[in-house]
Amino acid sequence: MKPSILVARAVFPQILTLLEQHFDVTSNQDDVVWSPAQLIAQLQGKQGAFTTGSQRIDAELLKACPDLKICANMAVGYNNFDLDAMTAAGVLATNTPDVLTETTADFGFALMMATARRMAESEHFLRAGLWNSWRYDMFAGSDVHGSTLGILGMGRIGQAIAKRGAHGFGMKVIYHNRSRLDAALEAACGAAYVSKSDLLQQADHLILVLPYSPEAHHAIGAAELAQMKPTATLINIARGGIVDDAALAAALKQGTIAAAGLDVYEGEPKVHPDLLTVPNVVLTPHIASATMPTRMAMAQLAADNLIGYLVHGKPLTPLNPQVVKA
Ligand code: DGY
């Protein structure tokens, strides 16, 4: 008998076809966002789950789903997983590293450029029919080339952004991270390690790429924003909750910093109402990894993890490999 799995959100039809070759599949192609209780009901009798960041897998769910053996997240981030609870329950967790690195770095760079050069604000102005004449300071923003790029969090995506800045745009790149990169990697990225306060004070453009954890909650709040240059921009492509969105909206209104570019939000898909009313912020709906080839590669890797573990006993990218029996 084939193992049973749940595909918890809509996915590419080709991926469903692949999964159906190996599993008895229940899918959610209508893309209903289930409540925790509905998710538990759907998971009954399932050995595997194909998840995205919108399904929380915690101790309560695991207790109620004793057949579950693996949750394969179609995301590199996995803050929707209580990894300790999954390990304690013997449930394997997998994510999709590497396949989205360059695409996400492209987007971080694009969001920084759109923010620095006030692209969204000026486009809204044009669409509103307000453009009557050229003016010397119309939507004058800040330069990206030759400026100082600050990166908070220096994993794969941070490094890919650093290379774009240092080697493509002649930027001085500084970073802060829990652990410092080795000298060879720093040289390859063209990046110098600094303290968090130096990063805040020196960056012209600060990009956040750190994973969410309780320690990272509100890593950027009013006190941190106050340390930044009034001409600086802040870009968040990491996770909602890393920035205190209310404090950011206040800082943008008061001119504490010049502008922000956000792809992720506290409590998304809701967006703090104050952010919707300030003009100097570019807002996108969590799309940093959203190109067709990359989303397909992420879905393929999540599917390969399910097949690898439930069919062959060997997942590709396990987060808690201690769960895998030797
Ligand atoms: C990720 O992979 O973590 C992206 O944020 C998509 O959810």
Can you characterise this structure?
With 326 residues, the protein is of the alpha/beta class. The protein has two domains: 4-99 and 292-325, NAD(P)-binding Rossmann-like Domain (Rossmann fold); 101-283, NAD(P)-binding Rossmann-like Domain (Rossmann fold), CATH 3.40.50.720. The chain contains 13 helices and twelve strands. The chain has helices at residues 13-22, 36-43, 59-64, 83-88, 101-116, 119-127, 156-168, 183-189, 196-202, 222-227, 245-254, 273-277, 292-310; strands at 4-7, 24-27, 48-51, 70-73, 92-94, 148-152, 172-176, 191-193, 205-208, 233-236, 259-262, 281-283. Helix 5 (101-116) packs across helix 7 (156-168). The mean pLDDT is 97. Residues 53, 75-77, 100, 289 line the site of (2R)-2,3-dihydroxypropanoic acid (DGY).
Topology:
Elements: E1 4-7, H1 13-22, E2 24-27, H2 36-43, E3 48-51, H3 59-64, E4 70-73, H4 83-88, E5 92-94, H5 101-116, H6 119-127, E6 148-152, H7 156-168, E7 172-176, H8 183-189, E8 191-193, H9 196-202, E9 205-208, H10 222-227, E10 233-236, H11 245-254, E11 259-262, H12 273-277, E12 281-283, H13 292-310
Parallel strand pairs: 1-2, 1-3, 3-4, 4-5, 6-7, 6-9, 7-8, 9-10, 10-11, 11-12
Helix pairs in contact: 1-13, 5-7
The structure holds (2R)-2,3-dihydroxypropanoic acid.
(2R)-2,3-dihydroxypropanoic acid binds at residues 53, 75-77, 100, 289.
